Amino acid sequence: MPKPLAAQVANVKAQLFSQSWLEASDDYGDFPTNGDRFTAMELSKRKDVKGFTRKGIICQAIAAGWHHKSPEQLKELADKVGRQRIQVLHGTVDNMITAPHGEVLARELGEDQGVTKIIVEGRGHVLHFEEEKLYRGWLEKMVEKTENLG
Q1: Could you tell me if 91 and 117 are in contact, meaning their C-beta atoms sit under 8 angstroms apart?
Q2: At what angle do helices 5-16 and 34-47 cross, to 10 degrees?
Q3: Residue 123: what pLDDT?
Q4: Distance between CA 105 and CA 103 in Å, rounded?
Q5: Whole-angstrom Cα distance, residue 114 to residue 50?
Q6: pTM score
Q7: C-alpha angle with apex 37: 100 to 43, nearest 5 degrees?
């Protein structure tokens, strides 16, 4: 039986974000907290019956649940892309994909051979929300780095 909407949204928030970010004042000042702003965004998204479909949710769940890459596949990926072009970002309180997975991913891709690893203490799964300015800086730095690789 489906959970009530309020319980669904609360679960999504708990899975994606750190509690400290959710409880903090809204970064843009439109809502009392960041959590309130995300709730408004989530409710707006769910009202879009063409874009937010049951089929889409099920496909995303299947993809996330069955997604696996072996160490050999990760090495092959890093060889093809180039380790200097890879950046692994992870929050330590990510409830979707726990922090040890980020450590393993960085190691298997070749952290010791040029892969950039950034682990953010006390942050969750959606770093581009929780650390917007820092995230923008990491992205800009990575783009500049890869442009200089040729």
Answers
A1: no
A2: 120
A3: 97
A4: 5
A5: 42
A6: 0.85
A7: 95
Question: What is the C-alpha to C-alpha distance for residues 87 and 138, in angstroms, rounded to an integer?
Answer: 9
CA distances from 115 to 13, 15, 67, 118, 149 (A): 30, 27, 21, 10, 14
Give, for 87, the enclosing helix (H) or strand (E): strand 87-91
Stretch 80-95: mean pLDDT: 96
Q: What is the largest CA-CA distance in the chain?
A: 54
Kindly state the helix (H) or strand (E) to which residue 119 belongs, with its residue range: strand 116-120
- In one-letter notation, the amino acid at residue 45 is K
C-alpha 6 chain-centroid distance: 22
What gap in Å lies between CA 102 and CA 25, rounded to an integer? 28
Exposure of 30 in the CB half-sphere (CA atoms within 13 A): 8
Question: What is the three-class DSSP state of 25?
Answer: strand
**3-58 confidence digits (pLDDT tens):** 898 999 999 999 999 999 999 999 999 999 999 999 999 999 888 888 878 888 78
